[in-house]
What does this fold into?
Amino acid sequence: MSTGPCRWTFLEAAALAAASGVRWIGTAPNYDAGRAQSLLAGALAANPQVQVSTKVGYFTAATGGAATVQGVLTCGQAVTGHSLAPEYVRWQIRRNRLELRRDRLDLVLLHNPEQAMAGDRAALYRTIRDAFAVVEEEVAAGHVAGYGVATWRGFADAGLSVPLLTALAREAAGGQKQHLTAIQLPVSLVSMAPIELALDGRGPLRAAAGAGLRVMASAPLHGGELVEMAGMADLIRPGLAPAQACLLATASCPGVTDVLVSASSASPWQQAADALAAPLWTSPDSGRSLVYAPPPDPAAEQRMRAHHLRAAKALAATVEPGDEFWGWAGRTLGAPARTTAGAAAWLRLAVAPEDKASGKLWEGAWEAQHALGSLDGRRPALIGEGRMLWCSPTRPASCADITHARQLGLVKLLADGPAVEILADAGYQGLGAQTGGRVVTPPHRKFKKNAPDWYEEMYERQRKAHSSRRIRVEHGIAHLKNWRSLACHFGRREHMSDIVQAIAGLLSHQQTADLIPAQQM
It folds into this structure.
């Protein structure tokens, strides 16, 4: 349960949540103009079995004034409304314990740490490490059981990751046992990136599960917007209300351990409790989600598995033994694989309705053609995975790649379009934040010199992982550059754009011809 946007009395909400079997109540010192924790104290005292998660970071003007009077914050720090300075973290933890009337806090989360040092990741990492060190001291004193991070965009835009947080926690603990136990981030049918990454066996949810961390999914209804999306519920589980279906989809995501829900009255809260009380897994042992599960028809499930193996054979790939990953309502089947060269790959099979089986499963090229009006009617080329998708008009070499992308409208197209993943090189660093995480670039080097060993190891691992995934993109670009008309161009440069577009079309046709026989094998 979350007390953030809850509009009825906190005492009523907490009492009903506890009676419904809720294990956690999440709050923060800035909720309800700073009154939430004091209002919750009575309900928590009456239900000692309910664990409480609170935060440090954001504060109200009154709290900032009190911290200034006590010398914890300067006047300049107080007006920002957010701080993770070590002395403030220590002071706020003590204040949280007093307001909640609990000697020992079950969980303390750094509230949107990316706000502390926006744009300076090296300083951000130091700030998180120093705050972790303070909380470790509170753990040793018996005042806190565990800690973590609650972030809205940190995992997408600020370079946060579970391995990074774990490394910072180890450093903060000084080589002793660290007590990083949880992360909190938005997971919903709008904030789909964590779900999609989890289904591919990647991302913060999978990493947290592997590290044994609790994952608290916030904003599962995306501020109530998803409640209005009629027709979605039947795709998830017939008979559920839209809000119930959206909650079930979030709770069913691999890696999610808790869903933070707030309600404006008792009735919606009870509906949410009923939806989440339904079995989420097909069996206790398999750990598979009903939402992200095989098709309900066993024959369809067997056909998809057979075609998945057939595709692997046609592509000369070897599917690695281990878990298979089913997509939304059994519409995709993915699994880790290896190419003949031994490179890591991901093989995904998609299924479509019969009336679309001979057509395109994705309309991104059509949408791009209509969104990019500057292309003079040229249609972007759509080829299968690993093939050329689109080729822009040429620009002078003095025009940076990222500037060209912005001028063509690609940033807006990606930000407003469906959830996709674009593997870009370092020239596009910065677009990830502007496109909702759809553009993925190599990690930005934060330390110019004297980088700690843990950072060098993490940076090199992330850089190599991105490079190995992006190698197919470089191959596609190389195929285009190998054409003699481009490698030895002595004509007028104003014709270059037309020549590039023509060669791109020929290359797309050639790659499509190569792809179709492989699919028919």
